[in-house]
Amino acid sequence: MSHPLRLFAPGPVEVPERIRLALGEPVYHHRSADFRSILADVRERLGRLWQAPGWEPLVLNCSGSGAMEGAVVNLMSRGEKAINVCAGKFGERWGHILRAYGCEVVELTLEWGRSVTPGEVLALLAKHPDVKAVYLTSADTSTGGEHPIEVLGPAIRAVSDALVVVDCICDFGGARDIRPIDWQIDAAVSCSQKCLLLPPGLGLATLGPRAIQRMQSADLGRFYFDWKLELVRQRDERLTAWTSAVNLIRGLQESLAMIEEEGLERVVERYARQAAAVGAAVRATGLDLFPELPTSALTAVRCGPELDGTRVVELARSKYRYQFVNGQDRLKGKIFRIGNMGVQHDADIIGAVHVLERVLADLGALRCRPGEAVAAAAARMHGVAEERSRVSRAS
After folding, report:
1. pLDDT tens for residues 211-251?
2. Among 188, 136, 185, which residue's Cα sits nearest to residue 163?
3. Bond preceding residue 12 cis, omega within 30 of 0
4. Looking at the 3D structure of the chain, how many domains does it have?
5. Mean of per-residue pLDDT scores for the chain
């Protein structure tokens, strides 16, 4: 029997035993009183995690891409114009979905890994004052890059009535302190298999008042992704519109409870600490990070001409049983990605860094003495924790 594979991918992630036990409970009927109680509790907990009082959270039987599609078909009408910010594969996906439904897309295309500035978005809004929505990505899993939504949202709202819709698939539930109301956005989407510690299969959304109002007039074709129907069923009847992914939703209930027990602030701090440690280790090996503004959910490593990211991923998996992930599309082989989503302990991160050192040494690409990258990660992790403790004591 081979050694079990350790998942350090940016989704799916390793599912904690506590959640696996919840997923393995006997199947609930999706129209039973027991399931109604679970769904009601999940929606209440999601409302707290989204940090958007008065907004409507939705639990959807689909992947994150399904939630993205729902955020187009329920908020746009035929021929309407939308701005899409594309700096990675998943920013690109917004554009694909919008075009598939006949919307006019004003594409703001950046070099993959760059972070958009408010001025770039505002310049497009000035040229296209008739846009109905701006579609953004909080952090793009393909590049590991984050966008400053907390600045973009207020800047857009100051000059436009366009809806602001954000893909928070990469970082909701741990890697970022997501605050839709403070960010002045109107809707956000996410999914189950990243920071929420679950297998794939659930999409998530949260809708503010302006998005709910827009849903009343949006006229794009939809059936399974009809969020007006979904909202009525979930809010008023404590049921999903269609057959529910009952065990996944029960697992989500357990995941949300775990995040609340740890405390969202501490979860966000843990992600930041561990991402900083991996970044320090990467630099110690002689490599560098790829994105302009890295997310805390994963580390995207730039390979350089002498290193093939595909070989890094293959060797980490075959020899050491660690699952890192290659770059996607135009970045395949040019970067590799190490995820720290989920409930990784600091020691798990040190283990992943040790494997990275070994792989780079095997490939003749290690530019430090063995152990130096691990030491850099440990020092950075301890330094971040010590600094946060000092600030906490001072306050």
Report:
1. 999 999 999 999 999 999 999 999 999 999 999 999 999 99
2. 185
3. yes
4. 2
5. 95
For residue 247 the two structure tokens come to 């065990």
Taking alpha carbons only, the member of 195, 279, 182, 239 closest to residue 14 is 195
Q: Is 54 exposed, middle or buried (0-12, 13-18, 19+ CB in 10 A)?
A: exposed
Q: Is 300 helix (H, G, I), strand (E, B) or coil?
A: strand
CB 183 within 8 A of CB 156: no
Distance CA 240, CA 274 (A): 36
Same domain, 349 and 267: yes
Over 80: is that where the pLDDT of 177 sits? yes
Name the residue range of residue 347's domain: 263-394
CA angle 147, 152, 153 (to 5 degrees): 120
* CA–CA separation, 188 and 67 (whole Å): 9
Contact yes or no for 373/381 (Cβ under 8 A): no
159 phi/psi in degrees, rounded to 5: -125, -5
Are both 176 and 274 inside the same structural domain? no
Q: What pTM did the predictor assign? A: 0.95
With contact defined as beta carbons under 8 Å apart, do 50 and 180 qualify?
Answer: yes
pLDDT digits (tens, 9 = 90+) for 272-308: 999 999 999 999 999 999 999 999 999 999 998 899 9
Q: Round to whole Å and give the CA distance between 348 and 334.
A: 25
Measure the CA–CA gap between 131 and 77, rounded to whole angstroms. 12
The identity of residue 207, as a single letter, is: L
Measure the CA–CA gap between 300 and 279, rounded to whole angstroms: 9
Asked if 176 and 272 sit in the same domain, the reply is no
Same domain? For 195 and 297 the reply is no
**Strand 56-60 relative to strand 203-207: parallel, antiparallel, unpaired?**
antiparallel
